[in-house]
Amino acid sequence: MAKKIQFMCTAFRDGFQSVYGARVLTKDFLPALEAARYAGISYFEAGGGARFQSLYFYCNEDAFAMMDTFRKTSGPDANLQTLSRGVNVVGLESQSSEIIRLHAQLFKKHGITTIRNFDALNDVRNLIFSGRCIAEAGLKHQICITMMELPPGCTGAHDPEFYLHMLRQILDAEIPFDSLCFKDASGTATPSKVFETIKQARKILPEGTFIQFHTHETAGIGVSANKAALDGGADAIDLSMAPCSGGTCQTDILVMWHALRGTGYDLDVDIDKVREAEEVFKECMKDYFLPPEATAVEPLIPWSPMPGGALTANTQMLRDNGIMEKYPDVIKSMSEVVKLGGYGTSVTPVSQFYFQQAFNNVLFGPWQKIAPGYGKMVLGYFGKTPVPPDPEIMKIAAEQLKLEPTGRSPLEINDDDPKKNVAYVREILKKEGLAETDENIFIVATCKDKGLKFLKGEAEMGIRMVEKKEASAAVQSEQARQVRASEFLLTVNGKEYSVMIDGNKAKVNDKIYEVEVRKSIEAGPSEAVKKTKGEGTAVKAQMPGKVMRLTSRIGDYLHSGQSVLVVEAMKMEIHVSSPVEGTVNDIKVKEGDQVTTGQVLAFIN
């Protein structure tokens, strides 16, 4: 009799992250979730990871409301699992004990059954407290060991001995857990190592321990790695559904079912109903832009282990900024970044640090600009890396970031930081006149300014849809006429507005308004500004991105190197500094503007 293999359907969490950069509206996928439930699937990945922040950043949705809806749609008996990044929980920054505990309590409150908990550096210290909080909240804790294959020629970690050493540390620390997952976000761990690791882990673990394996098809070995995990003794694997399957995502349920035929394993699923569910899912997602790299195997990934979710999220940001041509150079540069960075597993947030540093190395020259996350990682602020980072890179990072290396645990550092505690977040909410609920506290703690913008009703939409081609020349002619007449149709928070601009008058839905052009920071130029606007030394954008905030205003006197404004690019906050000492004479952009490399942002005289 064939062995029944369990699987978790990742389509509605990792699938969305790995294909659409996690930017999907809840209402759009619910019919597919209902169809998957009808097909007999009862184990779903339902949130966490990038699907927490992305809802506030790009979808103008509440992640807690999404989880409530997911539970209602999937039914009371479904095992709903979310992804947590150890002391980072669902953010890119590590958190204090108070926020880590709140994470577990809130996810339990909003219908989650299981939390998969990992640390990208495989530093067990980062799993102890977070794991205990998950168990104490009454959730099932699936503890994780993160895997990848090192670039060719590298040794010292990420082999069976390394993973088994970590497993022994987990057992010695007596972290409570209900199951164990070996998670390979980049899909690069060779099937032979997967097999040997899980086979040896079975000998160390208590009898009956539930083992799950997670991988992606990014490097083209997802099917063979899943089969190797099952042969080694795994009880469950992660699978997805089209259009969120294959390529940068998990192996498709249909593909794995076919690959296991005649092998002695059975997915124990009604495969015809799954086929029907996939057709529903494809219809649900037909209007979402599908990046071409999301559907293909990337041969360079074994040299530059980039997770599927990070790969598509980053290529989409490159597209948004008009620099997609840089992608091949960036992905090649990642290899050196991994080699010199201490071998942290390429999974969020470390994968983002790798990509940001590779991006900086391509744009500014090798190691001329250290990405803050990468620099803090090599200096020890996220925990201990599997092997010591390159000493010269550590020296460069320390000099540029003005930080000393540390051996303290992130939890200790954060608990000593008053800006990381709940009281500090409460003060922010109080100042903004927002309710001091546990949910709001957690949103601001993990999503920072963008979480606050959401709560204030100022969130932006950043979902990428397929561009529709107009049906006729008549329609195109009408569009051209509207452009000439300065007529626009704007959508704000789901509501449409007809806008006509005529000189200093604006007609919005038949109401006339006076138009006044202002800078995003109030208060005009001071008396100290003597020269005509636009004169002086130009402050130019170093890279494309969006103006996040202005840190100076017209009339301010700045020293050379002092921040003029902050540009958000590739999930980094880049301070654009004054190249000279002088007075801000003019600011050419406002908050929210998209800027390009070399664009003049301000003048200093």
Brief sketch in words of this structure:
This protein is an alpha/beta fold and 605 residues long. The chain contains 20 helices and 22 strands.
Report what the structure shows:
The chain is an alpha/beta fold and 605 residues long. Among the domains are: 3-299, Alpha-Beta Barrel (TIM Barrel), CATH 3.20.20.70; 473-514, no CATH class; 537-604, OB fold (Dihydrolipoamide Acetyltransferase, E2P) (Beta Barrel), CATH 2.40.50. The protein has an 8-stranded parallel beta sheet with strand order 2-9-8-7-6-5-4-3. Strands 11-12-13-14 form a 4-stranded antiparallel beta sheet. It has a 4-stranded antiparallel beta sheet with strand order 15-22-20-17, with no helix packed on it. Helix 1 runs parallel beside helix 12 (308-320). The longest helix has 18 residues, at 438-455. It is globular. It starts with a strand and ends with a strand. 48% of the residues are buried. The model is unreliable at 474-486 and 517-530 (pLDDT under 50).
Low-confidence stretches: 474-486, 517-530
End-to-end separation: 81 Å
Average pLDDT score: 89
Shape: globular
Strand content: 15-25%
Can you tell me the CATH class of the domain at 3-299?
A: Alpha Beta
- At CATH level 2, the architecture of the domain at 3-299 is Alpha-Beta Barrel
* CATH structural fold name of the domain at 3-299: TIM Barrel
Name the CATH superfamily classification of the domain at 3-299: Aldolase class I
